[in-house]
Amino acid sequence: MHKPPGILYDRRYYDHSISRISLENAGRVRNLYATLEGPGYAGQMRTFRPREASVADIEAVHSAFYLEQLREHVNLEDPYSYDRDTYLMELSLYTAALAAGGCLELADRVMAGEIDYGFALVRPPGHHAEPGRGMGFCVFNNVAITAEYLRRAHGLQRILILDFDVHHGNGTQTVFFETEQVFVVSIHQEKLFPFTGQAREIGSGRGRGYTINLPVHQQFSDAEYTYLLGKVLGGVVEQYLPQIILVSAGYDGHCEDSISRVQLTTHWYATITELLKHLAHEACDDRLLYVLEGGYNPASLEASVLATVESLLLPVGRRPGVAYSDRGARILNNHPLHDFWTI
User: Fold this and answer.
1) What are phi and psi of 285, to 5 degrees?
2) Are 249 and 229 in contact (CB under 8 A)?
3) Is 199 helix (H, G, I), strand (E, B) or coil?
4) N or C terminus of the chain with fewer C-beta within 10 Å?
5) How far apart are CA 256 and CA 263, in angstroms?
6) Of the residues 128, 167, 168, 188, which is catalytic?
7) How far apart are CA 160 and CA 240, in angstroms?
8) Any catalytic annotation for residue 127?
9) End-to-end alpha-carbon separation of the chain, Å?
10) Can you tell me the distance from the alpha carbon of 72 to that of 82, in angstroms, rounded to the nearest whole number?
């Protein structure tokens, strides 16, 4: 029986804020929250509230020295004293701990079988945060903390993370670069901040082959993205058999988001959700958890998140077809992933 998805959000996520202009601000999600609370979605999904991630949860990914650095910089007059993009205000660390804790709350609900799918609508985002450094609007790496928690608290040994934010998730890659227990797939615009995530970055040691980067050209749109992820995820999931799929869901590749040059439409976010639902149904008992990352045009962010939610509300249907894309195929030609996986 299809279970209603779980959605997590909280107005305390507004508390990480600054009076100066920043693309990463509470206004990104205000209208989205209001829409989800409105009559159009009443009774269609289960809603949850976050808990605060513990220091132990956070230090499973981030160093104690990094946390101490953050505490010191919060007390300085310049909110950007730590990083030129990542401001720290009085409530920033508490809000970031709520963001990570919200993801853990939903992860527990998924693992308990209360919900099949979850979407943690949290901020600040996290996928750029490395073990010892925050950057790119990110304080704590929410999806990495969630994956580590699933390993420690639930004993999972095969976790797949898909990151479709238009920027490479350098922090997530760094955390799991040397392990085979967390498989990281990232599709992102090439030569864009943080200027990492080249195809040759494939992991090391026991993790060799368990990182796949798909840097794409400017102007790539729905057809190329669907072809690339359909081919890669289809092969990887069939062979790796993940026990859960986590998604670093960044919506800044939308054609109306000025931060990038990728041209995804709102409809694509429904398409990829349909594919992920099907893969989760085949491989891991429908365990699928989305974590909000980027998306800096509030209107396109809301529309795209709602497209995702609408897809999560539906039962699993037919697996979406993957039409051939010549430009997408060129990305896969001679890609090092072929040394490890049959695609």
Assistant:
1) 55, 40
2) no
3) coil
4) N
5) 8
6) 128
7) 9
8) no
9) 32
10) 9
Interval 163-191 mean pLDDT: 98
Helices and strands (H and E) in the chain: how many:
10, 8
Region 184-193: mean pLDDT is 98
Q: What are 337's two structure tokens?
A: 């992933």
**CATH of span 6-17+34-339:** 3.40.800.20
pTM of the model: 0.98
CA distance 270 to 225: 13
Q: Are 162 and 246 in contact (CB under 8 A)?
A: yes
* Calculated CA dihedral for residues 56, 57, 60, 63, nearest 10 degrees: -70
Give the DSSP H/E element, type plus range, for residue 35: helix 30-37
CB 301 within 8 A of CB 289: no
Q: What are phi and psi of 188, to 5 degrees?
A: -160, 160
CB 36 within 8 A of CB 7: yes
Residue 224 CB partners (closer than 8 Å, separation 6+):
216, 325, 327, 328, 331
- Say whether 104 sits in a helix, a strand or coil: helix
Tell me if 6 sits within 8 A of 115, measured CB to CB: yes
Digit-coded pLDDT (tens) for 100-110: 999 999 999 99
pLDDT exceeds cutoff 80 at 148: yes
Amino acid at position 115, single letter: I
Which one, of 180, 96, 183, lies nearest residue 142 by Cα? 96
**Contact yes or no for 302/340 (Cβ under 8 A):** no
Do residues 140 and 50 make contact, with C-beta atoms less than 8 angstroms apart? no
Given a cut of 90, whether residue 75 has pLDDT beyond it is no
d(CA 138, CA 83): 10
CA-CA distance, 296 to 23, in Å (whole number)?
Answer: 6
Report residue 22 as tokens: 């920043």
Contact 199, 311 (CB under 8 A): no
DSSP secondary structure string for all residues of 17-31? --SS--SSSGGGTHH
Give the pair of three-digit tokens for residue 341.
């996986």
Chain centroid to Cα 253, Å, comes to: 13
